[in-house]
Write a structure and sequence with these properties.
mainly alpha, Growth Hormone, Chain: A, single chain, 22 helices, 401 residues
Length: 401
Amino acid sequence: MHAGGTSTATREATEGRSSPWRLGLPGLATLAVTYGFGRYGYGLFLPRFQADFGGSAGALGAVTSIGYLGELVALGIVGWWAGRRSPRLPIGVGLGCAGIGMLLIAVAPTTWVLVVGVAVSGMSPGWVWTPYSDVVQDTVAPSARAHALSMISTGTTFGVILAGPAALFAADSRWRWVWLGAAVAALLVTGWTMRVLPAASTRSTRPREQARWRELALRPDAWPLFVAAASSGLVGASYWSFAGVAVATANGGNQHVAPALWTVIGIAGTVGVLTGRFVRRHGLRAVFVSAQIVLSASTAVLWLAPAGWGFALTSALLYGAGFMVGGTLLSVWSSTVFEDHPTRGFSVVVLFITLGAVAGPAALGLVVDHAGFATAFAVATLLALATSVALPRRSQDNCDA
C-alpha cells in the first residue's frame, strides 16, 4: 500500500509539468527588460544624461536609489499576494512599470521627469522576479528547477548585451529612441508572458505561503543568505551606477568605452545559465566563494587601473561572470532554504538585495563626489571580499540543483 502510494505521488509530481524552456525563455525576456535594461541601462546612459540634464555624477547615480525604494514597496505587495493570486498579476504589473518608466525616460523634458521615469522603471524588478519562484516550484519537475531558475535569472545579462550596442547608437538625442524601443519591447514581452503563465494561483501554493514574514526573516540558516543578498545589491548597484562614467572619465571622456564595457559584461554574464550545473558539481559553498572573489577582482581593477581599454574590459569580463553567477546562485540557494514557501522566502531575499541596492548608489555616490571613483571602488572591493565568509550551511551545500 505504501509503495503504491509512493508510485502515485511520484507520477502526480511529474505529470503535467512544464518544460523549463517554456517558462524559462519568457522569464529570461522579462528579466532582460526589467533588470537588464530598465534597471541597469540607466548607469550606461549616465554620461549622456549628465550632458543633457546637468548635475554631478554622484547625484545622478544616486537617483537609482529612488527606484530601489519603489521596489521595496512592490516586494511587500508581491509577498502578500503569494498564493492568493496568479503570478501573472505581479509580473504583468512589473512589465507595465518597466514600459511606462522607460517611456517617461524617452520623452523626459526635464530632470524631474527623468527621475520619475527611473523610479517607475526601477520598481519593475520587485514585481517580476520572485513570483517566478512559485511558477517554477509548481509547474517544473524538481530535476529541472535549478535549470529554469538559472535561465530566468540570467535574463539580466541578455538585456545588458543589447543595451551596450544600443548606447553606441545613442549619440546626441538618439538615446531617446533607444528607450522608446525598450518600452515597446516591454509591451511585446508582456503579451508573450501573459500567454505562458498560469491563469490562476495553484492549489499547492496556498498552504505553503502562509508562513509569516517574521518566521522567514528570523530563520538562523537564512542569515548567511541575507548577508550575501545585501552585499550583492550594494556592490552590484554601485557598479552599474558608476562603472560606465568612471571608465569614460578615466579614458578622457571617450563615450565608446562604457557601451563596450556593458556589452562585455552581458556576454560574460551568460555563464550564469550554468550556475545550476556548477552547484550540482561543486556545491553551493565553492561556487559562492568563487563568485565573490571574481566580483571583488572586477571592482579592484576599477580601483587600481581604470584607464585603458584593456583594464576596463577585463573588469567587465570579471564582473559579468562574478555578478551573474552570484546573483543566480541566490535564487538557487533560496530554493534550498525556503523550499516550502518559495515566493515569500525569495521575496525576503530580494528585499535584502534591494536594501543593499538602496544604500549602495546613495552612499558610494557621496564617496565619489568627495573622494573620487577609486575610493568608491576600493570600498566595493573590500566589501565583496568580506562577504565570502557568509557561507551556506554544509547541509545546504550539496542541494539537488
